[in-house]
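YM 10:42: DUF4333 domain-containing protein sequence, as discussed on the call
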Amino acid sequence: MRSKAIIRTGLVAVLLTLTGACGTGDATVTLDGDVESEAARRLGKDAFKEAGYEIDTALTCDKTGSGDDETVTCNGATTKGQHARLLVRLRDDSTVQVGPGDQTLIDGATITGSVDGKDVFTKSCLGGC
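YM 10:58: structure's back
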């Protein structure tokens, strides 16, 4: 079973309010859809930047499939007008976590970024891995 944290505890929520582990206050995480798509949207822009492609607009992400056959596809544009696509193939043992700051990650997935149809990176983890 895939680990989904910060957390989708069976809830499909637009807004989650989380209490810090030390009781120091609340952190609010806003989700624009499901946990997997939100994590890909947040992390994809930095992954493209690390590969040398600055993303001009926020990535738009959609999840298809279920169980061990889930895929998140994100689309956007680079600052040079090139089409950017992020494809995240999740496995049953993948971990997806959305949290404030650098607490968002996707681990144990097949992640491919392409620009104008050419693969520019392939990874198994994005975020704090």
